[in-house]
Amino acid sequence: METFHSYSLRFRGKQRVVSQGQIKSKIFGGKRKGQWKTTIFQSILFSEEEICASLKDENLIGTGGSGRVYKVKLKTGRTVAVKKLCGGRREPETEAIFQSEVETLGGIRHCNIVKLLFSCSDEDFRVLVYEYMENGSLGEALQGDKGEGLLDWHRRFKIAVGAAQGLAYLHHDCVPAIVHRDVKSYNILLDEEFSPRIADFGLAKTLKREVGEGDGFMSRVAGTYGYIAPEYAYTLKVTEKSDVYSFGVVLMELVTGKRPNDPSFGENRDIVKWVTEAALSAPEGSDGNSGSGCMDLDQLVDPKLNPSTGDYEEIEKVLDVALLCTAAFPVKRPSMRRVVELLKGHTLACTE
């Protein structure tokens, strides 16, 4: 069994400084003078030149608010994902995202957290290079063309457990503890075997540092609409229970196949309200495809799935855990370590 160790934010990445005089890149503005810094976190053979030369539109696989992501095949035959952040040191938000990714992912080693291989930077650009995930994100797999890979419930359950283990590692095994702050299906990546990796640590915060600078309070809300814990919007306090709530939403997505704010829920209803109301309205002692009879799962389960009777029991267990995770009061939510235990353990009693 693989053992994962706690880490210090004084990560031990190997650094090297490279002259830019010989690097010509349309992406980085042509021939340049000066130096740029590369920090290596994983053993990998590469050259900065081949990374720069590959940041072309034909290699673009994703865009977001913080930058663009490219699929790059190295000369060694290895494929990596390269994120080029918008702006450079002159952009405070870009710099904050870059430093957060480097300081957190640079010291993490866990099979359910994406690996940061190396970073490159100078005054005008920031580049982060990760292991490439063949099946994209969980959100894309549930909602997009790759959905055929998630027609099997057992595969979805494996993703739920793996993602929970990754978050539990961040909360309980890292020193200081890390809160991701943007847990969502699109930030859970899937490898060639659909094993999950938690990704995108641009908003992540360490609890020790934040508590020391103001008792864990942040200046603005971070996260994605539909996944943000209700208390976070008015307290702005960073705790692990914010991630727990977001993960509960992801569990509901895995079961239902619906987005957190699917229009089918109706006005002023999100997936948490929809699932909670379905659980509370279930007739007592109902049978059929409802596991132990606590919920009528037929209206909740993704129609693309064709679960067996045994699968329904496991699906109900996942929904029970999801309801605990999305409890209105943070104190009533389980820790991520407890979530892992519940997912791996026996079926829970009905949530009151």
From TrEMBL:
<keyword id="KW-1003">Cell membrane</keyword>
<dbReference type="GO" id="GO:0005886">
    <property type="term" value="C:plasma membrane"/>
</dbReference>
<keyword id="KW-0325">Glycoprotein</keyword>
<dbReference type="InterPro" id="IPR000719">
    <property type="entry name" value="Prot_kinase_dom"/>
</dbReference>
<keyword id="KW-0677">Repeat</keyword>
<feature type="binding site">
    <location>
        <position position="84"/>
    </location>
    <ligand>
        <name>ATP</name>
    </ligand>
</feature>
<keyword id="KW-0067">ATP-binding</keyword>
<keyword id="KW-0472">Membrane</keyword>
<keyword id="KW-0597">Phosphoprotein</keyword>
<keyword id="KW-1133">Transmembrane helix</keyword>
<keyword id="KW-0732">Signal</keyword>
<dbReference type="InterPro" id="IPR051420">
    <property type="entry name" value="Ser_Thr_Kinases_DiverseReg"/>
</dbReference>
<dbReference type="GO" id="GO:1905393">
    <property type="term" value="P:plant organ formation"/>
</dbReference>
<keyword id="KW-0217">Developmental protein</keyword>
<dbReference type="GO" id="GO:0048608">
    <property type="term" value="P:reproductive structure development"/>
</dbReference>
<dbReference type="InterPro" id="IPR008271">
    <property type="entry name" value="Ser/Thr_kinase_AS"/>
</dbReference>
<dbReference type="GO" id="GO:0005524">
    <property type="term" value="F:ATP binding"/>
</dbReference>
<dbReference type="InterPro" id="IPR011009">
    <property type="entry name" value="Kinase-like_dom_sf"/>
</dbReference>
<keyword id="KW-0812">Transmembrane</keyword>
<keyword id="KW-0723">Serine/threonine-protein kinase</keyword>
<dbReference type="GO" id="GO:0009791">
    <property type="term" value="P:post-embryonic development"/>
</dbReference>
<protein>
    <recommendedName>
        <fullName>non-specific serine/threonine protein kinase</fullName>
        <ecNumber>2.7.11.1</ecNumber>
    </recommendedName>
</protein>
<dbReference type="GO" id="GO:0048367">
    <property type="term" value="P:shoot system development"/>
</dbReference>
<comment type="similarity">
    <text>Belongs to the protein kinase superfamily.</text>
</comment>
<dbReference type="GO" id="GO:0004674">
    <property type="term" value="F:protein serine/threonine kinase activity"/>
</dbReference>
<keyword id="KW-0675">Receptor</keyword>
<dbReference type="Pfam" id="PF00069">
    <property type="entry name" value="Pkinase"/>
</dbReference>
<dbReference type="InterPro" id="IPR017441">
    <property type="entry name" value="Protein_kinase_ATP_BS"/>
</dbReference>
<keyword id="KW-0808">Transferase</keyword>
<feature type="domain" description="Protein kinase">
    <location>
        <begin position="55"/>
        <end position="349"/>
    </location>
</feature>
<keyword id="KW-0433">Leucine-rich repeat</keyword>
<keyword id="KW-0418">Kinase</keyword>
<keyword id="KW-0547">Nucleotide-binding</keyword>
